[in-house]
Design brief:
The protein is 3% helix and 45% strand. The chain is mainly β.
Length: 125
């Protein structure tokens, strides 16, 4: 299946179906935010994978944002900001040369066993 690309720039909503090349991505879609966007999501969502380009932000402010295969065919080169919500990687690899920021007391990052979190620091060792 092709990557579902976020096509709008600026401050936007993840659930805006007109902002995605294939509609709002779901559990069978690889999603990519790569056009100078700050994309907010305040409700629980699950995608197959999520990638961000440098300078892009996925801002999770409510519920659980889940990815079944980490970054899948992409990387997180931007920022995944988790503010009072949960970012859950169910499996695969989270290729992360960018940042995952946990903000607020109730922010959580869930990585089950056998999930790989690759960071720029780990790659340089």
């Amino acid at each position: 299946m092709a990557i579902d690309n976020f096509t709008k720039t600026g401050i936007q909503s993840f659930t805006d179906s007109t902002a995605w090349s294939g509609g709002v991505p779901g559990s069978t879609n690889d999603a990519e935010i790569n056009d100078s966007a700050f994309v907010g999501v305040g409700t629980s969502q699950t995608v197959k994978s999520i990638g961000t380009g440098s300078g892009n932000v996925l801002n999770i402010t409510g519920g659980t944002f889940g990815t079944l295969t980490g970054t899948g065919p992409s990387t997180n080169s931007g920022i995944i900001a988790v503010n009072g919500a949960t970012f859950e990687v169910s499996g695969g690899t989270e290729n992360n040369p960018g940042k995952i920021e946990l903000q607020g007391n109730s922010a959580a990052l869930v990585l089950p066993r056998r999930t790989r979190l690759w960071t720029a620091a780990a790659a340089s060792r």
